[in-house]
Amino acid sequence: MGRLLSLKLSNFKSYKDDVNIDIGSSNFISIIGPNGSGKSNIMDAISFVLGVDTNFLRSSSITQLIYRGKRSNENVENDEDSYSSATRASVEATYQKSDNSIVKFYRDVDLDGASRYKINGKSFSLQNYIQTLNNENILVEVRNFLVFQGDVEQVASKDPFDLTNFFERISGSIKFKKEYDQLKQEYLSTANECGDAIIEKKRLQTEISHYTESANKNDKYNEKLDEKQKLTIQLQLFQLYLIDDQLNTVDEEIDNIQTDIGMVEDSLRAKEESYDNALNENVKYQFALKNNNKNIKEFLAESKKLKATTLNKTQNESKSYEHTISDLNHNLDILKVDLENHNDAVANLNDTKDKLEESCKQIKAEIKTIENDRAKFNNIDSNVVSQIDGIKSDYITLKGGDILDKEIQLKGNKLEELKINLRKVNKQIDAYEQLVKEQQTEKLQKEKTILKAEDALKANDHEVSALEKQKKKILANSESLKKKINFDNIKLKNTLLRIDELSADQRETKFEEKQRDMLRSLKNIYPGVSGFVIDLFRPSSSKYNAAVSLLMGRNLYSIVVDTAMTANACIQYMKAQRLGVATFLPVDVVSGKNPDFAINDKKAVFASEVLTYSREFNSVLRYICSDTIISDDLKTAQKLRWNDNINAKIITLNGDVIQKSGIMTGGSTQVNGNESRWNKIEYQTLVSTKDKLMDHVKKCHDSIASNDMLIKDLENQLSEIDKDHNDIKLNISFNKSEVTNISKQIGYNQEKLANDLESEKSELEKSIAMVQEDFDKLTEKRNSVLENIFSDLSASLGFSVLEYENTTGNLLKEKNNQFDLISRDLSEVVTKISFEERKKKSILTSISNIEKAISDNVKLAEDIQNLMDKIDKEINGLNEKSELTAKEVEDIKKKFEENKVLVNDLSTEIDEIKARRDKLKAELSEKESIYDSYEKDRVQLLKNCKMNAIEIPLINGSLNMEATADDEAFDYSIVVLDYDQLDKKLFKLKNKKLSNVEIHKNIKNKLADVEKELLTLQPNVHAKDRLKDLKEKYTKYNNEVVHDLKEKEKKLLDKFNKVKKQRRQAFEELLSFVIENIDSVYKELTVDGSLHRDSTSNNGLIGGSASINLEFNEEDEDEPYLAALKYQATPPMKKFREIEYLSGGEKTVAALALLFTINKFQPSPFFVLDEIDAALDATNVIRVGNYIKKHASNDLQFIVISLKNSIFEESDALVGVYRNQKQNSSNVLTLDLSVYES
After folding, report:
1. Within the chain, what is the greatest distance between any pair of CA atoms?
2. DSSP letters along 1136-1155, please?
3. CA separation for the pair 276, 296 (Å, rounded)
């Protein structure tokens, strides 16, 4: 590959005069310099000289490329003269080809915007100039040799379709686009023309077919006229057949309905009888419910009283015994632990005893062995003994044996003394350890006692809290009851005063008394009974008394109930009890209209606005009041009625009435009587209130008395708990003090063990070891000396004299001493075992006593429990009675509800039966009407046949064709039609389950079709001539026009497919290359050079991943250049995200990877990059620098414009750009860095 050696800029942009930029043989050149110095102008110079379009050179016009720098001479007076007078700008690039030959490319521009192109000084056309560059793989059209400032960001931000266009431009497939679009348009246009020609051909075929049919229609015309006549007769006859069939059917249905009505009325009578019986049952259930509810209250009151007195006291005694048993059990646990400790001590002592006895037995055996050995020497001659004694004397006098024996004796005495002291210390340690163990056991028992006492204290606190809460609740209840009593007493006093005021004139009439007695009876039985209208609706002011009395009229003593079912039940009950007659207003069914007009007079209001009532009775209010108006006087009433034209009932305060019809009623009224009536209602209400208040006060007093008993019992319980609480606190305090003292003693004893006795034991053991060592050495020395002295004698005697001396000497004495010491220890252990056994026996006696006390207390607790069970049994008995009664109540309620459901069901069934009866009657009426209708239709059809001379077949009677159709004297009932003449095919259709209506419709459709055909079968005399002309035209059109268009369409399609294939091949060549290489390039760009190679990743490097994919519709599958290109890149160690969600630096790296991959596809000899690192962080700048450094070679020269050290530090050469302030122009310095490489 070739390379760029140098550039020569002459008056180009910011470069004045001639500026040479020598690049030399470097593979990686960085152009550096401060912002505004003219670095990017070098990029423009390279682009300019290599024929790039001026639009890419960062100037508004090509003449702007000529240097226009201002001179720095301040003495220049004319501003125009202060600018450079350059008239031409040029750039010359020196290029070395791969065969080392030099080519100079030259381009300039003058002030007119005209450019010249030269190669090695010879002028060339732009086309030849660019072709020469293309021969060197410097592709001007696709700009494969440079990346402008901002190109990277544009590539990173391209949408998928822009990226596809970018690939088309790079791959060169774009050059086929114009021809592709033109051929496609021509092909589609020709295809449309061919389609139109085929349509015209088909139109001619259709027209030929049409005229062929027209020629054949004349013969059919007469046939269809006959068919029409026959179908008309069949239609009329079938219509009459249908009517006669319907008449027979309806007549049969009328008979059936009349039979059903008789059966329904029989069923209705039976249901009404069942309904009356069910209502009577409900009355019985109501009385039973009332009595049982009273019994339940009595049982519960007795149970509550028994529980509040006897049971609570017994429960306290039971708790006392439970506490005693708990304490005894606690003491028993302590004794059992103590017993276990003594058992452990006895077991340990027995182990020690066994060991000591084994030691005594072993020493006895050793003594016996020594004595047996000694017996061997009993027969020794006295001369031998004398010899031995003589040698021993020599040993003492001559060998210094006396001194050695004395030392051995002293060491032996010392050793014995130390061993005795060690045994003493060991005994003291055992004693202290046993004492500490006992103290720790005692401490643990005390701590358990404390914990148990604290738990008991918490339990007491919880119990006290619960009792206090209960007491507080009862006191609050008593206070609330007292307040209620005080409040009720005040109300009672006021009520009694008002009763006294009203009592004089509140004697009820016999009618009123009877009505109220009846209402009370109904209320006791039926909860849905609310009361009289007069009681439930009252005037808001006494001035409305007279008007409201007239408004209510006969409804004053009407009874308001919740439902129509309740009203029904009340009526049946009144019939059964002969209580008279009453009017009932069920809330769920009564209704009345709301006023649909407004009153514009302050002296009048709607009647509904002057009544006080409960909102649940809104429907009753509407029924009573409707749109009635109450006015202050008659004058206002007349004005409203006639002047304002209000069509409503109007009542005045004085009792005058204007009816809707205009009738007026008035005269003298008894206002006082009306007031007395409302006062009477107030009196009755007050008497009822007085009774309720007195009853409530009595109940409150009873509740307070019961509460006082409960509080007294609670206070006794609290007193007992408080006493127990104090005892437990004292016990806890004492035991805590004991635990503290025991802890101190344990600490002292443990310290004594650790610091004194263990230390003393350790010192003694060390001393014994040292003395024993000395003793053994001295004894060994003595034995060695004696062995030498006695060697000759031992040899002559045949036994060891030293062995004789040891056997008859101190060895037996030592073993006897050991036996005495162990015997003493054994005696002490036996004494201790005896002491522990006596203590154990004492503990067992205490355990037996406590167990007896527990048994006695358990028996007493059981007696108390039996008493509590007995009381519980009584309470449960009362509760059971209450529950049984409640169960009976539930059963009665269930039966009542079931019966209520039965009543509802019967009522519903009665309503349904009535509805069915009414429906049947309506059906009967409807059927009779239908029958008459069919009769009329039949007569009308016969009249039509008579009028239109339609000869329908008859069996009986005849239609006089000469008479008029509306002749009333003609009797059509005698006409009997011959339905055998109906077409048999119609009945076949009926057998196929087609309805009569469908068959009738079928006949009508056939008739209509025939009539329609008759209209279309009008003779056409010119049909044959027209048919001949059309056939000639069709033959010529098919052979010439359509054939030529099809040939043209085929040729265009072949051309289009050829261009399409070329475009696709060019595009796919680049796409395949990029798909194959983009991931490796991106990995190389994103790999962290500081990391070790990873054998699991591609190429052994840890890097990101990139891919490029086509997203196309099925119809674009063979034209990838019409699809969207999806570029995706995932930076290392990050999750996948779409490229638009990457950071600016990540996008730039991804875009560079794509540009570097594309450059590999059609590599140019050099690659010029303008500030591609602008958006990169330091790490990525280093990565890009490493990539360029790695790939810069003799085959690919990199020229990079950059401000980042990490880029130009890797360069082979630097081109420094700076501003010459005096000349107001850019200048350059070049530096070959390769000379500095070691």
Report:
1. 200
2. ---GGGS-HHHHHHHHHHHH
3. 31
Bridge partners of 1229, per DSSP, are: 1216
Q: What DSSP letter does each residue of 1175-1232 carry, written as one string?
A: T--HHHHHHHHHHHHHH-SSS-EEEEE---HHHHTT-SEEEEEEEETTTTEEEEEEEE
* Tens digits of residue pLDDT in 1082-1102: 888 888 655 444 434 444 456
Return all residues near 504 (Cβ < 8 A) that are at least 6 apart.
Answer: none
Note whether 1148 and 1156 are within 8 A (CB): no
Write down the H helix ranges in 503-579: 510-525, 533-536, 545-552, 564-577
Residue 376, pLDDT > 70, answer no
Which residues, 6 or more positions from 142, have their beta carbon under 8 angstroms from its beta carbon? 169, 170, 172, 1162
What count of residues does the chain have? 1238
Least confident of 38-52, 376-390, 713-727, 867-881: 376-390
* Helix%, strand%, coil% for the chain, nearest 5: 70, 10, 20
Mean pLDDT of 666-686: 59
Q: Nearest CA to 197 among 1235, 1042, 894, 1119?
A: 1042
On whether the CB atoms of residues 1210 and 1194 are closer than 8 A, the answer is no
> Long-range contact list for 158-165, CB < 8 A, 24+ apart?
158/1127, 159/1124, 160/1111, 160/1124, 160/1125, 160/1126, 160/1127, 161/1124, 161/1125, 163/1124, 163/1125, 163/1127, 164/1121, 164/1122, 164/1123, 164/1124, 164/1125
> Average of pLDDT values for 32-59?
86
> Where are the strands (E) in 349-430, listed by range?
none
| Average pLDDT taken over every residue of the chain | 80
CA distances from 564 to 445, 529, 570, 909 (A): 80, 11, 10, 15
Alpha carbon separation from 1073 to 163, 1064, 1116 (Å, rounded): 15, 14, 21
d(CA 490, CA 1034): 119
Least confident of 256-260, 552-556, 1005-1009: 1005-1009
Beta bridge partners of 1232: 1213
Asked if 1230 contacts 22 with a C-beta cutoff of 8 angstroms, the reply is yes
Query: Rounded distance, CA 1011 to CA 1003, Å?
Result: 12
> Quick one: which of 710, 730, 860 has its CA closest to 323?
860
Is 322:860 a contact under the CB 8 Å cutoff?
no
CB neighbour list of residue 701: distance below 8 Å, 6 or more residues apart: 485
